[in-house]
Amino acid sequence: MIWEVFRQEKEGEYHTHCGNVHAPDREMAKQFAAIQHGRRKPTNNMWVVPKEEVGEVDGEKYSFGGTTDKSYRWATGYNVTADDASEVVESSDEQEDAERRRSEVV
């Protein structure tokens, strides 16, 4: 029987799918999951689920959100010319100069 394994790295984070294990029963699946998927990375918690019990929500049958344009969240969503960015470049240069002077004093 195939069991799907979901791993939580830190408390409060989401569980993410990390693979599967082949085992005859739930207890063996938990042990195999801990050995194969729990020891490689920091792990707080694991879910071990029979593959047959994992359900799918088909995107063609149901409409999901996420159709709103949120390109404003990414720098690539803006048309910026070199003139518009001159203040940013100047500020960056000033910060580098200040850092250089601080390291010379020490």
UniProtKB/TrEMBL annotation:
UniProt feature coiled coil, ranges: none
Annotated region described as Disordered, given as residue ranges: 83-106
Database matches in Pfam families: PaaB (PF06243)
The protein's name in its UniProt record: Phenylacetic acid degradation B
InterPro entries on file: PaaB (IPR009359), PaaB_sf (IPR038693)
Transmembrane segments: none
UniProt biased composition (Acidic residues): 84-97
Recorded superkingdom: Archaea
Lineage: Archaea, Methanobacteriati, Methanobacteriota, Stenosarchaea group, Halobacteria
